[in-house]
Amino acid sequence: MTTADPLLAVSGLSKSFVLHHQAKRIAGVHGLSFSVARGQLCALVGASGSGKSTVLKCIYRTYRPAAGRILLAGEPPIDLASCDEHAVLAVRRHRLSFITQFLHCVPRQSALEVVAAPLLARGVAREEARARARRQLAELGIPERLWDVPPATFSGGERQRVNIARALVAEPELLLADEPTASLDADAAALVERALRARRAAGGAIIAVFHDPALVARLADAVVHLPAPGVPCAA
Amino acid sequence: MTSGWGTPMLAEPPLLSVRGLTRIHGPGCPRCLDSTGDAAGRNDCPHCRSVVAIAGVDFDLWPGEILGIIGESGSGKSTVVRLLHLDDRPTQGSIRLRGGDGGCLELTELDGAARRRLRDTRLGIVYQSPHLGLNFAISAGGNIAERLLTAGERRFAAMRERALALLARTEIPRSRLDHRPAQFSGGMQQRLQIARALAPGPELLLLDEVTTGLDVSVQARILDLIMELQHELGVAMVAVTHDLGVARLLAQRTIVMRCGRIVEHGLTDQILEDPQHPYTQQLVMSAL
Asked: Per-domain residue ranges for chain A?
């Protein structure tokens, strides 16, 4: 694995979940370390329940890490595991995107508005944001007749591509992708694969979970193996 | 707006800083605070029967941010809104509002006239019940004009122009300008409340369960409108809701209250997907 000048360095990351009402602790990940450099795609691989999504959600801070550091390069570097909420929001706005498994968006917004939103939040002018959103939707094969329609009415595959378009449109330095092609047919999956390659070629770093081992083989520059649930990571 | 990467918004001071905010109804006694709250599971003091509506509430709100406050009835979230809107005075604590000149106003120390002036010009509120937020005896246009008048506007043409622009922006047809609120649908009454609240261009908008009781489609329209307005105007908001879906859509950060205390705060998606406190876990589990 390339470790020279990593964009993101995860060290000793642990996360478990305490369910108070059931007095239970559920293992997530334990002592995970890895890093990803610019222009590199790192695939997280492991059995179901090994914590692949947990790692992505800890980096995005949807989950609160229990221990460890998630250091994002910068002047100064930011520890996403411990920095305050506003710093996380700013990193999300300017540097980090997450292709989640499901699209959450405002009910009445059109697909075009959903995809343009991250650009508007970065301060890009409305017309330019919409033009870039149109290009991104076209690249992912969303037919033009759907651009002005809220994604709630779309098929699962179309909705997921809107989700991917929204994550890619701002050309994030670091992209997290949780099974981005799981609900897509072969043609759509090929468009998404091309878009991920383009992001990487432009210098973006990607940390991804793929349901399809063939995608890992084709795309990954580095592979991080997560041990079975409850087993600590090798030092 | 944010500047660089590492220190966004942090360089900028908060618009609103709330510290140690406490409101006790009743005489109060030395044991009130220890006998109530999250651990005690109650907000009425067993020793003196006072009700500790909220205690020790701390938070900051940055310009242009929407902060969610969630919790069930009796958690104290509406008390926070009433105190922020200066409808009530805290028993203890501080509410500091930053001005355009960089200076800070301690709102809890203002006299009656200054409180009214601040409420009329720099604060806005939208209530769950339109009867609290609107004057049902006058027209829609009158409702907006009334708020502009109290904010100091005296030019009729300017008031009319502003009222028409606000109605258009909140998707109320111009033909309804002279109709009274009672003739409006529930969703339109809420949109009129929003127009009225925004009339003087406030820096802080308080939303108290604004979509509770509305049909889902009407709710979606109001939430969209609020988000569009936040983006266009950059007005900071505090949104109180018991609906976790509303918090997810509107708020970047959320505070969870129980028995008058803040039991958890964090990024809204973290609160919903990785709740830490037993009460938040229960709230999230019963919603999903």
From this structure: 1-95+174-235, 103-171
Q: Is A93 left (phi over 0), alpha (psi -120 to 50) or beta?
A: alpha
A188-232 tens-digit pLDDT: 999 999 999 999 999 999 999 998 999 999 999 999 999 987 677
Q: Which residues contact B155 (CB under 8 A, 6 or more apart)?
A: none
Which residues lie closer than 8 Å to B247 by C-beta, 6 or more apart?
A: B68, B70, B239, B241, B254, B268, B271, B272
CATH code reported for the domain at A1-95+174-235: 3.40.50.300
pLDDT (tens digit per residue) in A103-121: 877 777 899 999 999 999 8
The confidence band for B72, taking pLDDT boundaries of 50, 70 and 90, is confident
* Rg value, chain B, Cα: 19
- pLDDT tens digits, one per residue of B132-187: 999 999 999 999 999 999 999 999 999 999 999 999 999 999 999 999 999 999 99
- Return the higher-pLDDT residue of B221 and A40: A40
Identify the residue among B243, B269, B272, B283 best suited for mutation to test binding to A, counting A beta carbons within 10 A and taking the highest.
Answer: B269
Q: Which amino acid is at A183?
A: S
pLDDT higher than threshold 70 for residue B250? yes
Distance CA A120, CA A170 (A): 10
Percent helix, strand, coil in chain A, to 5, is 40, 25, 40
Cα separation of A116 and A185, whole Å? 25
Contacts of residue B1 in chain A, CB cutoff 8 Å?
A: 123
Residue type, B150: T
A24 touches chain B (CB under 8 A): no
Question: Across residues B222-235, what is the average pLDDT?
Answer: 89
Contact B286/A at CB under 8 A? no
CB contact under 8 A, A61 and B270: yes
Contacts of A18 in chain B (CB under 8 A): 276
Q: CB neighbours of B43 closer than 8 A, spacing ≥ 6?
A: B36, B37, B51, B52, B53, B74, B76, B259, B260
CB contact under 8 A, B281 and A93: no
Output DSSP code: residue B20.
Answer: E
From chain A, the residues in CB contact with B8 under 8 A are 86-87, 89-90, 93-94
The parts of chain A modelled with pLDDT lower than 70 are 1-4, 230, 234-235
